[in-house]
């Protein structure tokens, strides 16, 4: 039986540019859903819809009685459908490539299942009254989606041959260190927000059981470690004469880290204003994208080209 995706694939072949755009749209929407999710928390709208999957016990959509906080929360829920559409476009585009790149399609479907899973986590978060641990899980799942989306986007520009290293082994190990510590940095960020003042609702919401300033100090230490590793990577790539695009990725990561660190310190010493927290969340996503792009640039999967039989001069002359 012909599936809808197979039916589309028989009648449409996306250009490489369209394929890249489809994958990029999922990346953009993954970042946007993280930022708007932060806006829900920062405006105290986490329980703007007090249940899930409905907005209230009696209404599927927001009601006038819920005010602007209900609109913000419901709007963020509706944005999930836009995210799903972007992921769906990526799945259709990867499935319609000729020849069919099955592994690339699997990356697209992985995004779909993460979106569905995180929607359920979001619902559980509402049911549990914005428990900070489920809020943290909701945020980390959104970053998992961003991870898969970035990998899919990168893979659309590669072939399906086994990866070949572009730098020596120790450099790749340094990249792993950057990736792991950056992931830890993001996770530590959830302990700051989980104990901090922006609980996500105007009512009393439980917080993580520690002083948020101590968590912020630990978060800052991790940030300095990532910065040191990123600086080391930038220097090492110059020493080993790495490809230009790889060195550019290391430079981009350093720039994002410096900007993100500056924002972090300003927000800490200015009383954690909502607007700076939102910008810091955007910076977190951009930092993670930069980390992933650097790691992925350290190896390559060449796109196979069709071999054209060589012709001798006499054959060309008689043509």
TrEMBL record:
<keyword id="KW-0560">Oxidoreductase</keyword>
<keyword id="KW-1133">Transmembrane helix</keyword>
<keyword id="KW-0350">Heme biosynthesis</keyword>
<dbReference type="Pfam" id="PF02628">
    <property type="entry name" value="COX15-CtaA"/>
</dbReference>
<feature type="transmembrane region" description="Helical">
    <location>
        <begin position="21"/>
        <end position="40"/>
    </location>
</feature>
<feature type="transmembrane region" description="Helical">
    <location>
        <begin position="275"/>
        <end position="296"/>
    </location>
</feature>
<feature type="transmembrane region" description="Helical">
    <location>
        <begin position="135"/>
        <end position="153"/>
    </location>
</feature>
<keyword id="KW-0479">Metal-binding</keyword>
<dbReference type="InterPro" id="IPR050450">
    <property type="entry name" value="COX15/CtaA_HemeA_synthase"/>
</dbReference>
<keyword id="KW-0472">Membrane</keyword>
<dbReference type="InterPro" id="IPR003780">
    <property type="entry name" value="COX15/CtaA_fam"/>
</dbReference>
<feature type="transmembrane region" description="Helical">
    <location>
        <begin position="107"/>
        <end position="129"/>
    </location>
</feature>
<keyword id="KW-0812">Transmembrane</keyword>
<feature type="transmembrane region" description="Helical">
    <location>
        <begin position="252"/>
        <end position="269"/>
    </location>
</feature>
<comment type="pathway">
    <text>Porphyrin-containing compound metabolism.</text>
</comment>
<keyword id="KW-1015">Disulfide bond</keyword>
<protein>
    <submittedName>
        <fullName>Cytochrome B</fullName>
    </submittedName>
</protein>
<dbReference type="GO" id="GO:0016491">
    <property type="term" value="F:oxidoreductase activity"/>
</dbReference>
<feature type="transmembrane region" description="Helical">
    <location>
        <begin position="216"/>
        <end position="240"/>
    </location>
</feature>
<keyword id="KW-1003">Cell membrane</keyword>
<dbReference type="GO" id="GO:0016020">
    <property type="term" value="C:membrane"/>
</dbReference>
<dbReference type="GO" id="GO:0006784">
    <property type="term" value="P:heme A biosynthetic process"/>
</dbReference>
<keyword id="KW-0408">Iron</keyword>
<feature type="transmembrane region" description="Helical">
    <location>
        <begin position="78"/>
        <end position="95"/>
    </location>
</feature>
<dbReference type="GO" id="GO:0046872">
    <property type="term" value="F:metal ion binding"/>
</dbReference>
<feature type="transmembrane region" description="Helical">
    <location>
        <begin position="174"/>
        <end position="196"/>
    </location>
</feature>
């Amino acid at each position: 039986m012909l599936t809808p995706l197979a039916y589309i694939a028989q009648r449409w072949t996306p250009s490489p540019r369209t394929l890249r755009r489809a994958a990029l749209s999922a990346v953009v929407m993954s970042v946007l859903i993280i930022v708007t999710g932060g806006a829900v928390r920062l405006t105290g709208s986490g329980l703007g819809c007090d249940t899930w999957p409905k907005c209230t016990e009696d209404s599927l959509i927001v009601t006038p009685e819920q005010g602007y906080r209900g609109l913000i929360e419901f709007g963020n829920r509706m944005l999930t459908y836009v995210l799903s559409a972007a992921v769906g476009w990526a799945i259709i585009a990867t499935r319609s490539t000729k020849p069919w790149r099955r592994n690339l399609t699997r990356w697209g479907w992985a995004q779909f299942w993460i979106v569905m899973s995180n929607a359920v986590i979001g619902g559980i978060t509402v049911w549990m009254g914005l428990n900070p641990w489920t809020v943290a899980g909701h945020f980390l799942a959104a970053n998992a989606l961003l991870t898969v989306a970035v990998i899919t986007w990168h893979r659309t520009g590669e072939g399906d041959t086994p990866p070949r290293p572009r730098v020596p082994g120790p450099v790749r190990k340094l990249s792993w260190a950057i990736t792991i510590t950056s992931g830890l940095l993001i996770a530590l960020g959830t302990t700051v927000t989980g104990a901090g003042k922006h609980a996500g609702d105007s009512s009393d919401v439980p917080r993580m059981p520690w002083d948020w300033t101590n968590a912020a100090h630990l978060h800052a230490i991790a940030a300095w470690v990532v910065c040191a590793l990123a600086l080391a990577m930038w220097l090492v790539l110059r020493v080993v004469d790495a490809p230009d695009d790889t060195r550019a990725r290391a430079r981009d990561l350093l720039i994002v880290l410096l900007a993100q660190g500056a924002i972090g310190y300003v927000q800490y010493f200015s009383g954690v204003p909502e607007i700076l927290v939102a910008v810091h969340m955007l910076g977190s996503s951009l930092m993670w994208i930069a980390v992933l792009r650097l790691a992925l640039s350290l190896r390559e999967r060449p796109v196979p080209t069709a071999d054209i039989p060589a012709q001798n001069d006499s054959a060309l002359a008689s043509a």
